[in-house]
Design a protein that fits this description.
Oligomer: homodimer
CATH superfamily of the largest domain in chain A: Response regulator
Largest sheet of chain A: 6 strands, parallel
CATH architecture of the largest domain in chain A: 3-Layer(aba) Sandwich
Strand content of chain A: 5-15%
Structural class of chain A: alpha/beta
Shape of chain A: elongated
Number of strands of chain A: 12
Distance between the termini of chain A: 59 Å
Strand order of the largest sheet of chain A: 2-1-3-4-5-11
Largest interface: A-B, 46 and 46 residues
Number of helices of chain A: 12
Amino acid sequence: MADNKIRNMEEFARVSGISRPTVSKYFNDPESVRASTRATIESALELHDYRPNIYAMNQNRKLTKNLGVVVPLLTDPYFAEIARNLEQRCIAAGYRPTLFSSHGDPALEVEVLETLRSLKPAGVLLAPLGRASDQRALERFCEDVPTLIFDSSVDEIGLSFVGSDNYQFTSHITDYLCRTGEAPCFFEMKTPANPNAHRRRQSYLNAMKLYGHTPHVISVEGEGWGFEEIGRLGGHDALKEDRFSTNTILCSNDRLAIGLLTACYERGIKVGRGEDCTIRVAGQDGHPHSRYTCPPLTTISHDYDAVSQTAADSLFSAIEGDVSPWKSTRLEGKLILRDSA
Amino acid sequence: MADNKIRNMEEFARVSGISRPTVSKYFNDPESVRASTRATIESALELHDYRPNIYAMNQNRKLTKNLGVVVPLLTDPYFAEIARNLEQRCIAAGYRPTLFSSHGDPALEVEVLETLRSLKPAGVLLAPLGRASDQRALERFCEDVPTLIFDSSVDEIGLSFVGSDNYQFTSHITDYLCRTGEAPCFFEMKTPANPNAHRRRQSYLNAMKLYGHTPHVISVEGEGWGFEEIGRLGGHDALKEDRFSTNTILCSNDRLAIGLLTACYERGIKVGRGEDCTIRVAGQDGHPHSRYTCPPLTTISHDYDAVSQTAADSLFSAIEGDVSPWKSTRLEGKLILRDSA
DNA sequence: CTTAATTCTTTACGCGCGTAAATTTTATGT
DNA sequence: ACATAAAATTTACGCGCGTAAAGAATTAAG
């Protein structure tokens, strides 16, 4: 590490005894040079620790090693967790991921895409805002940049879609709730940000019909991404007006359920499976926090690893030349039984 | 937006009728050109929507407009929230922030700094991992890049430090707890990741002495960043062995408190201020989730906005030439009274 | 040892822009 | 109107690297 101030690749090539174009080739892909050359360069690298100027590098390269990872809201632990997972997969595969959050704002989402465009990324892993997204802007972006859509699907844009099977989620947990107690009613936002919410409601309706029960949907008001508060306030209203038709409530997602649990607590209603409990509450998502609610939340969890891996691998293979047609992959969730239902 | 494929600044300068060096000057700082010229350029910009190549831009510029924002763990909603806040301030100030997370891993933290170095950022807002950080690596980085340290202080490195006043946090909430019930015992991790934890324990000890009470600290085992689980398991143990000396527990941080609340629930212990409650639990941090625990968590909250603003503004003024000496700013927290204590 | 296939070296150009210096144009004050 | 300051233009060079082409060196195969 006696780095004698190597200023550029020219100098580094000189001290390593290898020509600059070959060194350039090495940095582009170490496997592309002979093993003995690689060893020479790498031993020189240990002595001088030089790093190529990324700006000069990316200026002329047809394809950078940059990847974009875009999530709608990084302060949501679900997206934070999946972003972390994706980021590490990208690094492991030799790419340079950059993390972006739309912060729940459609205008910001468009800006993020513009920024991303100027980064000339090799590819992008994009979880759109959903309903609020500027569809046209997304489409145009996907035409220019290899983009894999995940989490929430918006038409057939991009290379492919990878997400969870929301129909399976809801039908599976509805089935569980029906088998273990009263059939559930469904607690959701009236105008959800995410299109998955519609699939979940539909799946609830289908499942209830299938099992011969009368479905009942409670849709609560509320805009934005403060789901817990929407669930809490909506929960208070619904409880006050006695709008829950059964003692079992299936929430459209965990964050809503967390808010509802708080509302129940605040009204002195005991939630759970015990003898002394009034109602059962279940969520959907396997939110990182769901383990620590009181009572711990019964939910159906995304397979974070599988979604991340499928998404990342699809993008990588597309970048590396695989030209398979658009495809939607929806992975099943796993029921997580806890005390709330 | 009839963008007739502007390929570079040369072409854009031609169509806008302004010379390229002036256009370059404009993109570097729009205020640096005459208002009439600015108007000319901006109207051309609307017609052709050209964006300078950021790689070519940053290659020769002495100082880029890039900023780094580094947090120890982006999946922690506290850091996610503060990162979001900082990011938006950077954008508003005309910089290009890039978000990094060390994911709780010291080796990754060093890697992030290396990556950051090659981005030649104008400055960095860095929240170190803390105890686990590679001190030497941090120091060397701070020597090369204008870095403002926030959240957790590590020696007097970087431009300055901005964070919360942990002494005030703990003494304030200890005072509150003493005045409203039994004096608290202190629930913490034996080997905390964050140096703030030591300040909090010390402040607890001081405050208890001041008020003439006997302090009692319960330190629980557990490594890593899964604070909720550490709090839950440690809580179970402590409850089982009856190690809490009073009916009031002040937790070193909210995530630990959240885990403890879950443990209490699981043991059928009622937490809160009500007649029927056995113990009181309080946290520290004002974690985004603390509003939705059951019962809602009494805590003392970081002033997110003030911390972010002070940190961002300090960095900006340092970048713009202010050479004030190293300084530590510690902002007071606000008590948030809820039902748990 | 010859031959062919790889791999490396040399040479050279260009990417898109920052930036400096000298010159010309435009704005400002009297 | 003039002198002066401020801003824009012209010209030119260089940043650090990607990349292409042609020739030399190395390796692998027969």
